[in-house]
Every structure is written in C-alpha cells, then in structure tokens.
Amino acid sequence: MLNTFENAETFHHRRLERERHMANMDIFSNVIQHDDEAAILSVVDALSGFPLAKKEEVTTIATKERNHFRLYTVCSATAVLLVIVSILSAWGGMNKEEKAIATELVDPSASRDLNPRFQRIFSLILDWGFTPRSQLEIETSASRMALNWLVEVDTDTFEAEDIRARYALASLYFGTQNVSDGFVWTRSMHWLSEFPVCLWYGVYCHDDEWIRVDRVGGLNLSSNGLVGHLPEELGLLGLDIHTLDVSNNFITGKIPTSIGLMKNLRHLYLGSNLLTGTLPKSIAQINILQRLFIEDCLLTGTIPTEMANLQDLQAIGLHENAFTGTIPGRLNQLSQLVVLYLDDNSLIGTLPPFPTSLVDLRLRQNTLSGSIPSQLGLLNLLQTCYLDTNCFVGTIPEEFANLRFLQELHLYNNYLTGSVPSLFGQFQYLRILYLDGNHLGGTLSPQLGLMQSIESLFIFDNLINGSLPASFVLLTDLTQLVAHTNALSGVIPEDLGNLSKLKVLKLQENHLTGSVPPSLGALPLTELQLHWNQIEGDIPSTICKLTQISLRNLTADCADNIGRVGCKCCSACY
What we know:
Layout: H1 2-33, H2 37-46, H3 55-92, H4 96-106, H5 108-114, H6 116-128, H7 133-136, H8 142-152, H9 160-175, E1 203-205, E2 216-220, E3 227-229, E4 243-245, E5 250-252, E6 267-269, E7 291-293, E8 315-317, E9 339-341, E10 348-349, E11 360-362, E12 367-371, E13 384-386, E14 391-394, E15 408-410, E16 415-416, E17 432-434, E18 456-458, E19 465-466, E20 480-482, E21 487-491, E22 504-506, E23 511-513, E24 527-529, E25 537-538, H10 541-546, E26 553-556, E27 565-566, E28 572-573
Parallel strand pairs: 2-4, 3-5, 4-6, 6-7, 7-8, 8-9, 9-11, 10-12, 11-13, 12-14, 13-15, 14-16, 15-17, 17-18, 18-20, 19-21, 20-22, 21-23, 22-24, 24-26, 25-27, 26-28
Antiparallel strand pairs: 1-2
Helix pairs in contact: 1-2, 2-3, 4-5, 6-8, 8-9
Pfam family, one: LRR_1
InterPro entries: Leu-rich_rpt, Leu-rich_rpt_typical-subtyp, LRR-RLK
Keywords: Leucine-rich repeat, Membrane, Repeat, Signal, Transmembrane, Transmembrane helix
C-alpha cells in the first residue's frame, strides 16, 4: 500500500516536472533560433529539477536545434517556390482579359494599366510625341486624367483619329480648371460626354464631317473662365483646326510650341490672358496664318524676325505686352498686312519701312526714337496711325499729304517741332487729330478750317501763337477743341457759336483778350475753360443758363479782388 502511494506520488511529481520542462523548452527553442550562447545557458539554468548542463552539452543541443530549424526553413522556402511556379504557369496560360480580371482582384489600379484599351491608348499617346511618359505616370496631371477618362469613361471611342482629338480636348479641359479651388469653366456643355466633340461647347467642325469623325475645325473658348496652362497636346489638333480662340481668360504659363504644328491655322487669338515667356518661333511655321492676336499678356523678349515668313498674315496684335528690342525690318515683306498693333510695349529704335498695304498702324507708348520717316507717306491706304507717347523728334513730314484716307492721327506726347502743317486741311476723312504735348510753334493755318470731318482737335500744351483762325467756323462736326497751354492771342471768334456740335472748349492758359462771346451760349457745351487769360467783362447770361442744362465745368478769371471777369455761375474762379 505504501509502495503504491509512493509510486503514485512519484509519478505525479515527475509529470509536473515534465510539463514545466516542456514550457521552458519553448523558451529554449526561441532562444536557440537567435544563436545566442549566453542566453542559452541562462535558460538552461532556469530549468529547475534538471542538473545544470555543461557548456559543451548545451552547445550540442543548440546545434541540433539550429539544424532542425534550418531544415524546416529550406523545406518551407521550397514549398513557397513551388507555389509561385504553379501560379506563373497558370498566369502564362491566361488570355489578356483573364489576366486583367485576376490582377484587379489583387490591385484594382494595376488592372487599369494592364487593360488592353489602356495599353493601346497609352502607346498611341507616346507615339504621338506630345506627352512625355513622366507626365502620364502622374495621376494628378491633366494628361493622365485625360487618359483615364478615355479608358474608363469614353469607352465607345475606338478610331485613333477620334481618340487623338478627344485626348487633346480632354487635356485642355483638365489643364485649364481647378475644381477644388472653385475655378471651373463658365460654359462646358457636352464636354467629356459621349457626344461627338463637334457638339461640345465652343468646338466647330468642317461642314458635316462631325457625322463621320471628330475632326476639329475651330475652337472658341473666349471669356470662358479658363485657368491654368495651355497643354502641348493642343498640337494634336494638327492640320484640321483653322481657328483657335482662348482669349480673355486667366491662362498662365508659356505658349505651347506645338501650336506651330497647326499648319492650316488661319486665326489665332490668345490675348487678354496671363501668358508669359517669349513668342514661340514655331508660330512662323504656320504658313497660311492670317490673324495673330496675343495682346494684353505678359510676353517678353523680342519680336521674331521669322514672322516675316507668314506671307498671308493680314493682322498682327501684340500690343500691351513687354516686348523689347526693335521692330523687325523684315515685316515690310508682309505684303498682305493690313493691321499692325505693337503699342504699349518697350520697343526701341527708329521706325523701319512698313508694307504699303497697312490700314491701321499703332505703335503708341513705346520708346521709339528718331524722326518720323517720310516713308510713312507711302502708306496711302492708312486710316489710323498711333505714334504717340514715344520719343520722336523733328517735324511732321510733308509726305503725310499722301495719306488721303487718314481718319485718326495720334502724335501727342513726343518732341516734335515746327508748325502744325496746313496739309491737314486736305484730309477729307480726318476725324481725330491729337498733336498735344509737343514743341509745336508758329501760327495755325487757315487751311485747317478745311478739315470738314474733324471731330476732335487737340493742340494743347505746345508753343502755338497767333489767333484762332476764323475758318474754324467751317468745322461743323467739331465736338472738342482743346487748345489750352499755348501762346494764343486775340479774341475768341464770335462765329464759334455756329459750331452746333461743340461740347468741349478749353482755351485756358493763353493770352486771349476781349470778352466772352454770348453766342457760345447756343452750344451744347459740357466744358468751357477760359481762366488764366486776359479776358475781361462778365460771363454772358446765355452761358450761365447752360450751367442748368449741360455745362458742368465753367472756369474764368473771376477770383475776388484779382479777377477781371465777373461770373456768378462759374464752377471755379482763378
């Protein structure tokens, strides 16, 4: 009985020690995997109930455990390799659609890249050469968004030419608005829809070609809230497009050089934007270009002489930019040129010869210098000429007498000398003559009274002397006569009261004498300035009555104690 109890107790004791030993062996196994001999000895010491093993014995045990672990690792790696080989073998037997489906289960974004349609369009875009691969790899780029739209949404487009046009326009769409910042197009009807591009807002196609293929003949998105850069992909519209108008928007960046590939482009309007950089020389490759307007931007650099290659060019509008350098003399070769606007830039130098076909020449507000060349007299079709606000010197050429169709002549704010030429009396169509802000002197010729169409005559701030010609009474269309700040003398002609359209008469700061003619009260005057003269007497009551009708600005030398003129209705006394 005792032996039985002792045997049971011994069995129970041994079982507890074996369980404790197994638990510690788990710890021991983990330590062995790290091959740390000190840690192994420490764990062995912790195994109570077992004699402390010698270092050599422990090392032997560790070695055996490591060998078992390495064998297990090799077997596991072999199994994984066999699985991979099996998967690759199965993948190789799949067709493209099965591969796309299998990939999508693992990575939906990767499935798009492996999609046959994606691969085809991706390759087309790279082959066209307008979009670098790096741009297509940026998910947020306009190019990539256009690509994704073609693959995921516009799935019914298959023809390469259709894809080409739709990709170009989609790139423009994504590149010129910022939805997150609230900048969206004002009008975008049918854009990025399933409809042919010829039905998209602002897109025009050739005749009925839109029924067959998306070939863009014109694009007009002016005043449409475009923000951002013009993409190089616009060049994909290539030989089809005839008109491109994105004026009056908020477009920034440089002008795409790819525009030069639009070989059939006739009208290019990019003005009133925030474009920077220089004018691309590639534009000179558009041989049949007729109208070029890139005004009111921030363009710099010089005007390319290569523009002389555009023999069909009829109108150039590069005004209100920051162009420097001289006006290219080769522009004289543009025999079809009718309009040339280079005003409001920083151009320097003298005036070159211009084509005789010019009708409208505007060079105002530059730093052009030298004398006004007599060759301008050869432009016998000229109707409008703006040369004001420059640094021109010398006299007004007598050759101007040949400009018989001239309607507007702006020569103000220069350093011109001599007298006001009597030849202006020959101009039957001249409506506006601005000669103010120069150093013109001498007297006014009676021949000036023959300018039968003149409406505005500005000769103020000069050195003109003598009296106002009596022939001015013949200027029946005159609405503004501004002759202040000169050295005019004599009396104000009574017959000026017959100029029934005269609204503005400014004669202050001269040496006029006599009294104010009552006949002026019959005019529809809004301004009458007579101060700082030697005029005497009272302002006629007929004129004072005008202050209750139309006259808003009436001045005279009527200040208390020093004034020679009595005026109870003047708006200001001097």
